[in-house]
Amino acid sequence: MRRRFARHLNLLRWALLGVAIVVLVVFLLAQRQSVDVSYGQSPAPSARIEEGAAGELGDATVPSTDEMTALVTADPVVRLPGAIARWDEQRVRAAIGGHDTRILVAPPGLDEAERKRVRKVRNATVRVIGTEVSGGAYQASADTLPGWRAQFATGDVTDQLVALIAKLRGVPAPPDRDDLRWREPSGPELAAVVGDLRSDGLHVGAGATLTRVPENAARAAFSDDAWYVVLPGQPYGEPLPRYGPALTRLAPDRPIVLMYGGWIEYHGPAEADFADLAGASFYAQFEGRLSRYDYPQQNVLGAYLDRVTDIRYAGLFDRPLPYRPFDPLRVALPALPWIFAACVAAFLVLSVRSLRRSLGGPGDPRWGGTPARLAGLTALAVEVSLLTDARSNPALTRSIGKLQAARAALDDGLPEPHVRTLLDDAAAELDDTALVVGIPSYRPDHYLQGRLS
Amino acid sequence: MSPPLLVWLAGGVLLLGAGFLTTVLPRRRSRERERRVAWSAARAAIDSAEVSRDATTERVPEAERLLTRAELIAAERGGPTAARAAADYARRADQLWRGHG
C-alpha cells in the first residue's frame, strides 16, 4: 500500500515535470514579436511604379537647346508652349530689382532628355519646368500647405521665384505670401455639383483629367459613401470656388474629397485632425514629382487615397478594430507562468521527498537481525576464546577481526549486505574454530539457535 | 523585469537545479558508500592475512609479496577499484599462508 503510494507519487512527479516543460514550450512558441507595428495590414499598394507608367509624361515638347538659348537671349521671360506656371509679375519684378534675370518656362511632363535640354540653356537665370523652379545650383519648392495649394491648384510659383531670385542675388528672401483667394460658389454651380454627387457621388468638372474614382483605393480609404468633386486646374489670379464648407453643410457626416487640378482637399468628419495631416504627408512626399510631371488627376487621387488608407491603418484615427475570434491561447497566456510555477514547486517538493528517501541511511527499520547476529557471534567468540589453543587461535583471531570490521561497518552505516558478508566470514572462521576445538555446540549455527530459542 | 518573466526564469533555474541535484546527490552518495564498503572489505581481508601470516611458522615469500602490495595500495588510499585490488591480493596471500599453516 505504502509502496504503491510512493510509486504513484514518483509518476506524478515526472508528470508534473512534463507539464511544466509543455507549458514552457507553449509559452515560447506563443512569443510572436515583430518589428512591424502596424495597426493593421494596410491594403494600400506599395509596389514601385516605373517612370512614365503613371501617365506623367505629357504631350508637350521643347525646342532644341540652341533655339531656346536664342529665345532667352531675345526675351527675358520665355514661355514655351504648354507652360502652366504663373506668377505675380509685380512681386517677381521687385525681387529682380533691375538685374538681368532671364526666366525660361517649360511645360510639365517632359522626359529626361527634354529636361536635360532645358537645363542646358545657360543664359536662363531661372528655369521653370512645370512648376518646378530651379536656377544656378538651387531649386526652390513650397513647404507649406498654402504654398502647395497655390502651386498645384493654380500653377502659382511666385513664392518659389522670389525666394530663388533672392538667393541668387544673395539678399534675404521676403516672407511667403498666400495670395490665393476664395469665393462662394454660385447657386447654379452648387446645384449642378450637388446633383451629380447625389446621383453617383462624383462630380467631374469640364477639363478635369479623371474618368472615374479609383475604386479599390477609395473603398479602402473611405467607405463607399464619400463624395468626390474633381475640378481642373484653376486659372491663376481668379478666386477658387469654395465647395468644401457648402457641401459639408449639406452632408455633415460624409467625407468629401475636393480636387482643384493637382491639389486635393479633405472635408467632412474629423477634418480638423485629419485633413492637414493627410495633405502635408502627401504633398511633402510627392511635391517633387507632381511639380515636374503632368500626372492625370486620376492617378494623383489614387495616390492620395492610398496615403489616406495608410494613415487610417496607422491607428491615428478612430477606426473599429477588426473582429478578433476567441483564441484560447491568448486567454490562457497570462495564466501560463503561474501554472508553470505550480508545476515547478510540486516537482521540487516531490524531488526533495524522493531525495530524502534515497539518501536514507542508518536507522532504517528494515535492518532486521544483523546487529543481533553480530552480538551473538561476538559472545560466541568470547566464549570460545577460553578453549582455544595454538591450532585454533588463528581462526578465532581472524573471526574477531571480521567481527570488528562488521561492527565498524555497522557503526558507519554501510549497507547491510556488506555487513552480512563480513559476519558470514566471521561465522565461517568460528565454525572452523569450533571444528578444531571439537565442540559442536560452539558451531555458530548451533550456538545462535540455542541463544535465540 | 515583469513578475511573469521572473517566474519563467526562476522556475527554469529551479527545475534545472532540482534535476541536477536529484541526479548528482544519490550518485555521489552511492559512490562514496561503494568506496567505503570496498575499503572496509579490503581492510578486513588484510587483517585476516596478517593473522594468518603470524600464525604460520615458515616463510612464504610469494604471500609476503602479495600482502606487501596490498598494504602499499591501502596506504595510498584510492577508489573502489584500488580497494578491490588490495582485497584480492590480501585474500590470495591469506590463502597461501593458510595452505602452508
From TrEMBL, chain A:
Top-level division of the source organism's lineage: Bacteria
Protein name: DUF4350 domain-containing protein
The organism of origin for this protein: Micromonospora craterilacus
Transmembrane segments: 331-350
Assigned keywords, A-Z: Membrane, Transmembrane, Transmembrane helix
Source lineage: Bacteria, Bacillati, Actinomycetota, Actinomycetes, Micromonosporales
TrEMBL record, chain B:
Membrane-spanning segments: 6-26
Top-level taxon: Bacteria
Name assigned to this protein: Uncharacterized protein
Organism: Micromonospora craterilacus
InterPro entries: DUF6403
Keywords, alphabetical: Membrane, Transmembrane, Transmembrane helix
